[in-house]
């Protein structure tokens, strides 16, 4: 398959939407500035409520439908407009909220290699889990496939955690995430990963 500019395009994609993911479009996105293409992947962890898995709350948050009165921990989320490109649930289900060609609102105030506003040039992947906790084998398997698909589509030059682009403000995915495992699974160069 060939794009109009002559470059190869994987049949895995329909525009910036990965065919293998369940699409749940979020209204929380915007255009990337200029001709910016993603070069950075940012991994996050999330659970709503904290430590509870499998419910509809994460999707509700990213689509501005979360009932903030349903749990005391949700009150701080009232009025928040956030998203990520992907969510990998504990059982390995892959959900996509924003086209990878667009800017999702996942990184907030952030800086990487001297550049601010990491949302402009990154892809955000949420792993369902607790900050600092461990993740499931199924999640690593799906993350591997997702990263390979992203690497085929974009010229990626780094994979980091939210903690690496917003130190002191964010600490996810945290020490429970196995960076050496991800690197081994992908077979990518060490320079693309933090502290591996």
TrEMBL record:
Keywords: Cell wall biogenesis/degradation, Cytoplasm, Hydrolase, Metal-binding, Zinc. Its cofactor is Zn(2+). Its EC number is 3.5.1.28. This is 1,6-anhydro-N-acetylmuramyl-L-alanine amidase AmpD. It is found in: Cytoplasm. GO terms for molecular function: N-acetylmuramoyl-L-alanine amidase activity. It is an enzyme of class 3 (hydrolase). It comes from the Bacteria. InterPro entries: Amidase/PGRP_sf, Amidase_domain, NAMLAA_amidase_2. Belongs to the N-acetylmuramoyl-L-alanine amidase 2 family. Residues 26-174 form the N-acetylmuramoyl-L-alanine amidase domain.
